[in-house]
Structure formats: C-alpha cells, structure tokens
Design goal:
Number of helices: 25
Strand content: 15-25%
Structural class: alpha/beta
Shape: elongated
Largest sheet: 9 strands, mixed
Distance between the termini: 65 Å
Helix content: 40-55%
Radius of gyration: 37 Å
Oligomer: single chain
Length: about 725
C-alpha cells in the first residue's frame, strides 16, 4: 500500500513537472508575466557590487570584486556640455540663442569632432533676430553640429525647427528617449533609427520617417541620406565624429533597438579650472563641463583633453530644466546621458545582446526535472543542492553579462525554484514520523511554541541564533534573602510557586515567552519565536499587570505573613535568540547587551525606589498610550551613554485617582527640577508624596532637590550614575 501510494505520488509529480514547463514557457515568453521582475533584476545586478563594497567600507565602488567585469567607466572622450546651475545663474534660462553660437565656436576651437545639440530650436529669437543668424552661421561654419526636430510618436508628424537649421546642420536627429521605455519608465533599450508606425498592428511598418520625406526643407546631408531612416541624436553625432555615412550604420543596426550597456557614475570636481575651487562635486556617468566655463575660457587641462578629438552633447543639467529617466545607477538620470550612453556603446561595440528565446526555452524545459530528480534525497540535501543550483544560475547570469549577454534571469530562476519548492513541500508532508520524534524528544524541555517552530523547520535546532529586535522582561521579588531566612524551605517554596505562577500567567496572557526562573526572578521576552509587531507594548502591559497581581496576592494569600514586593525592568533592542547551550542540552533563550540592560533596570528600581522601570528604547513611542512618569536619566555601570527611564502605571486614563493626582504634582516638580529650580520643585514633590504616601521616586527627588538647593551641582549632565549593577 505504501509503495503504491509512493508510485502514485511520483507519477503525479512527473505530470506536474511536464505541464509546468509548458505553461511557464507560455507565461514568460508570450504573456511576459515576469518581465517587470526581470527588468528590475537587470538593474539590481549592476548595483550589487556597490552594496558589497559598502559592507567593506568602500562607498560608491561599482567595480568591487566581480563588479570590474560587468561595470565599465564612461569613455573620457564623450562629454556633456552642461547648461548647469552655474550657467543658468550667470546667463539665465532659457539659455539665449546668441550664446549657443559662441559655444559652438569655442567647442570647435577646442578640437571637438562632433557636437550633438540636445536642445530644440523652434521659434525665432524673441530678443533679437540677429542672434538666430549668428547661431545659424556658427552651425554652418562648424559643419559638425547635429540638431533636433520633434516627432509625434502617435502620428509620426514632424514639428519643423528654426528655418535654415536643417541645411546648416550636419544631420537633423530625433531626441525621443521615450519610444522604447519599459513599463517602469526605464530606458533599457534604445532605437538608433526611428522605428516605423505599425498602423494595422500586423508586424509591418506602414509608415516610416526617412530623411527624404521629413519636409524640413533642404538638408545638408541630402541626397546621400534621403533613403535612411532618421537617426537618434547619439547615432547621428557619432556618425559625424567618424565621418561615416549614416547609411552604413543603418545597415548594421537597422530598425531594432539596442540594449543599453550603462556605464557607472563617478564623482568629479565641479569647475576644476577655477582659480578658487568651488568645492562641489558632480555625480555623473559622463564628464559634465559647464557651458559658462567653456564660454569664459576657464577650463581645466583634463576638460580640454576630453573635448579635444572627442564627442560632446549639449544639454541641460540644471535642476528642474531637464527630462530625466530612472536608470540602473540613478533615479534621476538626465536624458542627454542616454544619448551619450548610446554613443559609448556604439563606439566600443558593446551594447548588451539577448541570449535568445531558444536557450531560455531549453532551460525552462530541463530545470524542473532537476528539482524532480532531487526528490529521492533528504530535505536537507534537496535544499542544499537547490541553493547551490540557484547560486550556479546566478553566477552564470553574471558570466553571461561579463560577455555582454543578458537573459530573463527571473523567468529562468523561477522555472527551477517553483518546482523545487513544490517537491520539497511534498517531501516534507511525508515526514510526519520525524515531526512526532522531534515533539517527543524536545517537548520535555522546550516550550510548546518553540517545539511547534522547530517541527516546521528542524534547522532551528542549531546551537546558533538569529538577531532580532525584541523586548526583554526581568521581574524580581524584593528582599528575597530576608524572606528565605524567615521562612522554612517548605514555606518559601510554596510562596514562590504562588507568586511565580501568577506572574507567569500574566506573561503568557500577553503572549510572552517565559525564558527561565532564577530563584525568585522571572525572565521573559517578546517577539520570538513568533513575530509580534507590538512587542514593546505587550512587555509594558505585562509589567503593569504583574504589579497588580502582586497587590492582589498579598491580600489573598493570608497563609503567608510576609508580603513581598516586586521590581520589574523592561528594555527593548537587538538581541540574539535561539537554541543555545551544549551539544547535548539546548535552551531556547535570549542574550545580548539589550537583555543585560533590562536586568540592570530591574535592579535600578532600588535607586529610585520605583516598581517598574522601562527604557526610552521601549517606551519612547508608547507615551501616548499610558499614564506614566519620567524617572530620570541613568548611566549604568560599564556604559558611557545615559539612558532615559520611565515608570508606567496603567493604560492611558486608567490610573487610580490618587495616582493621577500624584503624577500631576510629580510632573510639575520634574519640570522645575530639570530647569534648575530645585527649591521651587520641593512643594510639588511633597504634594505628590502626600497624594501617594510612601512613593519612592517622589521622596528620591525631595532628597535631591534639598541637597542641590543647598549645594548646586556643577557641570551636571542631568544623569544619575549608578555605581552598582543592581
């Protein structure tokens, strides 16, 4: 029967794996269900080396470790002539037409091979028409300037630029970076030549834009460019720099987009040619050279070197004046740098290449069967091999990227991970006896919640732990030593059972985990093993209710003549939780500095004569939820930084009337005390003590106020130093 069931289960998994492969191919390649995730991954993998570098204290290093094989710097001969904030501040915005002519003349004197104007000129100059003539003359004289015209991507209609610009420009080009954007707004692909318009959606372009049918008047490149589709700004500018006809590049790249191989950004000094450095830096992929610096001849040698024999694109980088797109290395990537990236990719012949749908289909067909094959091994082996396989796929993806190939990695990875998870879960469901063994073996000394946790994930049985943000709770009966001397062992044991049982019930009521009992001390914690978003609040509520239980027990337990008191310390912060101990004996517990601080605060109650002490780390965001008072700022032994501590009494508005009266007087006294009005605070603290006779903190501040009023303390940082650990 068992063998029959096993064979039936195996057959089901074989059928499921085959169906999954076919369905996944359709979903990923026809429907594109993972496209957005693949796009996001294509960006993350480029930035990942920088994250690794930050761990080792090397910020903004995109070439760290394997990063040097996938991320390249920008070509220094490709620059952005930037209408930056400095230029706008000096020459205004929009930038005047007359300055463009001066700029073109200056750039050519500096030896620039080609100039791409990522600026559109449609209307005549409103200030002086002679400025247009000056600009057009500079463009014609230079012979290496590419200018723009606008295209309506819905209708392919063309907006005509400034009359005469087409006949004087080396080429006219289109600037549109938005015709191939992905759904998330990223420009990962770019058309070097404007694609046609498929009006019938039949895969054939019924309408195209060639230089010969632009209706821009006479073009300088005619008739040699008439049959060529209009080029992008980057493509046309590069063609001018290489003195190669656009026709030749059109034969190479055609109408398909290239996949952009982005260069990583670097920090460069702004305006390095100034006599007095500005001190500012520019975080950009390509070197940005200020237009004002070019016009005013204040360039640094390295800027002149980049311009000489190089390619430059003129565009705006001033805040609020440019189109920006998200890119792998920046969420505010200037559109002009996309054109520069195109030029860099063309120049170095390294745009990314799609590995092809055939290889992806083959991977999707084979990878699920690897997961099925692993089913014959243990879950530990299955998880380990699956992790190694995923790592191999990840390394393979980076290896392909090093050779300029890319593929839908998430689609491929999920074709393995989804079947792997399925067979691992199926395997786990058949291991019921292992679960029973864990419960019978470890249930004797671990809490039921912990046992349930490790039955779901046996790997939790390791000696190590995990770091979590948690709340620790320490409760201690005051005067335990005195009680132990006055009571017989039997009476002492009976009393401890009564009190500790009541405290435990309160802790469990608020979903706390009782860690251990140390004599008369109860140690508990929250936010493990289960996640508890409000663990701080739960810890404080438990502390308040434990004090209520203390009062109730002292009345009801008439068989004991001794009526003890208890102190509670509550602290939150990072702690290590897990199965700690020896190889033969484990204990699910917490440890860490934040745990020690909770213990210190329990003992620090003796200093203020308070009942509950909780830290700023626990109570800082809970003040609006409770009736409480500020105890002060303490510096415990071994700590240089003081900690603010508080004493909560009840949920907001639920404190007893005498407590509310006491808290009001106490708060008034505290305000005066910490403003240095020690004598003035005494009446308030005495009124608080009168409202709650025997109130320890009120007496504490009365004593200190009287002391400080007579002998003011000098250079006090308003923190109390505790000389004992408590």
């Amino acid at each position: 029967m068992q063998q029959t069931t096993k064979n039936k289960s195996s057959k089901t998994i074989y059928i499921t794996a085959g169906v999954f492969s076919l369905v996944w191919i359709i979903l990923t390649q026809a429907v594109g269900i993972t496209e957005s995730f693949d796009n996001k991954w294509s960006d993350v993998r480029l930035v990942f080396p920088r994250y690794m570098a930050e761990i080792y204290g090397r910020s903004d290093d995109y070439t760290f470790l394997f990063g040097k094989y996938i991320n390249k710097p920008a070509d220094p001969q490709i620059t952005i002539t930037a209408i930056d904030d400095h230029t706008v501040g000096k020459y205004g915005f929009p930038f005047k037409r007359k300055y463009y002519g001066q700029l073109i003349d200056k750039l050519n004197k500096l030896g620039v091979k080609s100039i791409g104007m990522d600026v559109m000129f449609f209307e005549p100059d409103k200030d002086d028409l002679s400025n247009d003539a000056r600009f057009l003359s500079s463009v014609a004289k230079a012979g290496n300037v590419v200018n723009l015209f606008a295209i309506n991507k819905e209708t392919l209609s063309v907006k005509t630029p400034l009359p005469g610009l087409g006949s004087r420009s080396a080429y006219m080009a289109y600037p549109n970076s938005d015709i191939s954007l992905d759904d998330d707004g990223h420009a990962r692909r770019f058309y070097l030549f404007y694609p046609g318009l498929d009006e019938n959606f039949d895969g054939v372009s019924e309408k195209t834009l060639n230089y010969g049918n632009l209706d821009l008047g006479k073009l300088r490149c005619s008739p040699y460019c008439d049959d060529v589709k209009v080029a992008s700004l980057g493509m046309a500018t590069y063609a001018v720099a290489t003195s190669t006809p656009l026709y030749d590049y059109h034969k190479i790249y055609g109408s398909s987009p290239i996949m952009l191989n982005y260069r990583y950004p670097v920090f460069r000094q702004a305006h390095p040619g100034w006599e007095k450095p500005s001190g500012a830096t520019i975080d950009s992929t390509f070197r940005q050279i200020s237009v004002a610096d070019i016009i005013e001849d204040t360039l640094a040698p390295e800027e002149k070197e980049s311009l000489k024999g190089g390619i430059t694109l003129v565009g705006s980088t001033a805040l609020g004046t440019y189109d920006h797109f998200p890119a792998p290395f920046s969420t505010l990537f200037p559109g002009v740098e996309i054109h520069a990236t195109c030029i860099d990719n063309i120049k170095h012949d390294d745009p990314l290449m799609d590995i092809g749908g055939g290889y992806l289909t083959l991977a999707i067909l084979l990878l699920p069967w690897l997961a099925v094959y692993l089913r014959k091994f243990s879950i530990k082996v299955m998880v380990s091999v699956s992790a190694v396989t995923a790592a191999v796929l990840l390394v393979g993806d980076y290896a392909l990227l090093c050779n300029q190939y890319t593929l839908p990695f998430i689609a491929m990875m999920l074709s393995f991970l989804i079947p792997s998870v399925y067979v691992i879960v199926d395997k786990g469901l058949s291991e019921g006896r292992e679960k029973k063994w864990i419960k019978s073996t470890f249930g004797q000394y671990l809490s039921p919640k912990v046992v349930e946790l490790i039955t779901k994930d046996p790997s939790k049985l390791s000696l190590g732990g995990e770091k979590r943000d948690m709340t620790a709770f320490f409760l201690d009966l005051a005067g335990f030593t005195t009680m132990s001397e006055k009571l017989s062992p039997e009476e002492l044991t009976a009393m401890l059972v009564e009190y500790l049982s009541a405290f435990t019930d309160v802790i469990l009521k608020y979903d706390g985990t009782v860690d251990k009992y140390i004599g008369d001390c109860v140690v508990a914690f929250w936010n493990a093993p289960l996640d508890q978003a409000d663990h701080r609040k739960l810890g404080v509520l438990a502390a308040i209710d434990c004090q209520k239980a203390m009062t109730r027990l002292n009345v009801s337990l008439t068989q004991f003549t001794i009526k003890p008191k208890c102190r509670v310390g509550v602290n939150s912060g990072p702690m290590v939780v897990g199965n700690m101990g020896s190889r033969s004996r484990l204990s699910y517990t917490v440890m860490g500095d934040s745990v020690n601080m909770a213990s210190r605060m329990e003992g620090a109650n003796k200093y203020f004569h308070s009942k509950i002490m909780t830290s700023e780390a626990t109570f800082g965001d809970l003040k609006d939820l409770f009736d409480y008072r500020y105890l002060g700022s303490i510096r415990v032994v071994g700590k240089a930084i003081p900690t603010k501590v508080y004493e909560p009494f009840a949920p907001k508005g639920e404190a007893a009337p005498e407590e509310k009266t006491m808290l009001a007087h106490y708060a008034a006294g505290i305000e005066k005390f910490y403003k240095g009005d020690y004598a003035g605070s005494l009446p308030d603290f005495k009124a608080a003590l009168a409202a709650a006779p025997g109130d320890g903190p009120s007496q504490f501040y009365i004593d200190n106020a009287e002391k400080f009023a007579k002998e003011p303390i000098k250079d006090w940082d308003q923190s109390f130093n505790l000389t004992e650990k408590g």
